[in-house]
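Hey,
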Amino acid sequence: MRILHTADWHLGKKLNEYIDLIEVQEDLLNQIQNILKEEEIDVFVLAGDIYQSIQVSDDAIRLLNEFLKETVRKFPQTLFLILNGNHDPAEKLNFGSELMIENLKIIAKLNEKHFPISISKNGTMYDFYPIPFYRVNEYRYLLSDSTINETKDIYKNILQNISINKNHKNILITHTAIDFMSKQERVDSEEDTYGNVGLVPSEIFFDFDLVLLGHYHKHQKFERNIYYSGSIYKYSASEYNNKKGVLIHDLKEETHQFIELSPKKNLHYIVGTFQEIITKIHKQFNKHQTENDYFYIELDEKNLISYAKDELSRYYKNIVNISYKNEDIFSNTSKININHKEINQLNEIELFKKFLEYLYLDEEDQNLDDVLYEQTGFKKQELLDTYQELWEEFRKHQS
């Protein structure tokens, strides 16, 4: 029995809320199709978070539809088990599920009468238990049971009604957060914008031979039999160092192989001074990477660099975000040396000069003219004159 285990596709996800990843995701799904063909898979498991949001985009729907259309019929001997996660619109996924063709099961609504989904191979019976994702309030309302107060209560309630045949191989599939906070790495893109996913003790699942999960974005193993496949792409800065792919579980050979995916556009996180990032660090990437991949950049500077993005974009075409290692840059305004009352007494040029002091002066005894020329190549008076011209032009158009 060979199982392809994947999760957390987040179709429709955008980096930093504005960079579209549909083209990247489409290529990754094509790679998964190739793995299906090469690895002779018996069961395909997609353990939730198929979509990024309950407001599913047309492109995201198209990607899932094309993937299923091309794979389910192409691999009729493979059983496809797909269930919802905390980001998915359960009702939309569940629509028409009873009409699906024989080798495709989409489970977004609990129906214990369908447990288990059984497959016999080489004299061994394999029982699959796909449990869809529920929020606590949703499940408590479904059962009219006030004792359901945490996510773990949902699983205790469901599993107490399941009779497992110990003579079979039993595989549980669901989308949840195992309580291993001290042993696993949580990443930014796992934050649930529709209500937090409660932690579930691992011992709840110990009766199963294999537990295939979605939710955590790093592929990892917990205890003896609990696996997360991880997401298929680096969806946040904190995932930049994680490998992304799918897991192949061979229950006969008792192997669990990770197969890495290669995105068309990778994601990188780089840290350094402005000069380091455009010189030494820039040399670590080839031309294809700097023109094609996505970059999160963290500047290790004492002062704000007003031209940072324009200048850095000459070296890294696709910058997702620029941050500063020294966060005090944004909160420490004491060096402006001005109060709110005095602001009203300054003209526009004097205010602009104060702004330049805030941006570029680190020490009280520094000379603004010298620092400006060193960091920008312009003298203070040149910048003040230019600002004056722009200000007068602005006032002329306003009048």
